Structure formats: C-alpha cells, structure tokens
Amino acid sequence: MNSFATLTKVATLAAAVRATEMLYVGRNEMTRTGNLLEISALLVVLYLMLTLPLTKLVAVAERRLRGTARRSNI
Questions:
Q1: Labelling 57: which of 5, 31, 42, 66 has CA 20 to 30 A away?
Q2: What are the transmembrane regions (predicted)?
Q3: Cα Rg, the chain, nearest whole Å
Q4: What are the domain boundaries of the chain?
Q5: Ordered per-residue pLDDT tens for the chain, 74 residues
C-alpha cells in the first residue's frame, strides 16, 4: 500500500509539471499567432485526454484494493 501512495504522489507531481508546461507553450503560441480560442480549446482537449483515462484507471485500482482489503478482513 505504501508504494501505491508513493506512486500516486509522483504521478500527481508529474501531472502538475506537465500541465504547467502545456500552459506555458499554449501561452507562447497564443502570443505568437493570436489564435486564443483555438489554442485554448486544444489545451482543454489535451488536458481532458490526459486526465480522464488516468482518473478511470485510479478508480479501478481503488476498487481492486478495496476488494482485496475486504477479503483479507474476512
């Protein structure tokens, strides 16, 4: 369980850094091209593409861990 918590913390930090980098590049492209709406929409789509599958994966892992914990308590 401890390694799962560590992995979650590392993944969260990596996601925060990645999101910051995406915003930085997006802001630079908005300044360079002037396409605010298109680049903003692209950033939102990319962010959702990265976070939604990971959220589902964590939910599955939590269900499995809860199931394992319940069976070991019986």
A1: 42
A2: 39-61
A3: 18
A4: 2-73
A5: 556 666 666 677 667 777 788 889 999 999 999 999 999 999 889 888 877 887 788 788 888 888 776 666 65
